[in-house]
Write a structure and sequence with these properties.
about 35% helix, alpha/beta
């Protein structure tokens, strides 16, 4: 019998604080209780300060095992700026390495749960998962009103991919 592997892509994961990080951590733990091998792919911890946490600074990426869950922390240009340009730069600074990771690394299983928002990260993760023939679970937890300008083109793009 094949191992049940679930890869979770999320923008927030402990040691970051907040509802999103806690929700994704609890979800990973629950799937693990049901016999899944869990891998999490997330950016280097930087929320809410907009600065990489001290123990993760000056590292291109970090691979760590926490409570039986393999965590891949990928690079990001962190920003909590009010500037839309800097925020988008921050999102894509994680989304692009994530896309390459998902395309080039093949041993993370056939099932991938992608947390949305943020939409740019989710869109590139869905695209990479589609290219590599993964089973996609898109977990949309909420959509902020300011992101609604992205929704119609994103839906059209997702329909084309799926």
């Amino acid at each position: 019998m094949d191992k049940k592997i679930l890869t979770i892509v999320t923008f927030y994961y402990p040691p970051e604080k907040g509802a999103a990080a806690n929700r994704m951590s609890m979800m990973a733990s629950e799937f693990r209780k049901y016999g899944f091998e869990i891998q999490v792919i997330c950016p280097l911890p930087n929320y809410p300060d907009g600065k990489i946490k001290r123990e993760y600074r000056n590292k291109l990426y970090v691979k760590e095992l926490v409570d039986g869950i393999l965590i891949w922390r990928l690079p990001i240009y962190p920003s909590n700026s009010k500037s839309g340009v800097l925020r988008m730069l921050s999102l894509f600074s994680f989304a692009i390495p994530l896309f390459l990771f998902l395309i080039l690394k093949s041993n993370y299983g056939k099932n991938i749960l992608i947390q949305c928002p943020p939409l740019p990260v989710s869109l590139l993760a869905v695209l990479a998962s589609k290219i590599t023939s993964k089973n996609i679970i898109l977990n949309v937890s909420r959509i902020n009103p300011e992101t609604l300008i992205f929704v119609p083109p994103t839906i059209r793009t997702l329909r084309g991919l799926l």
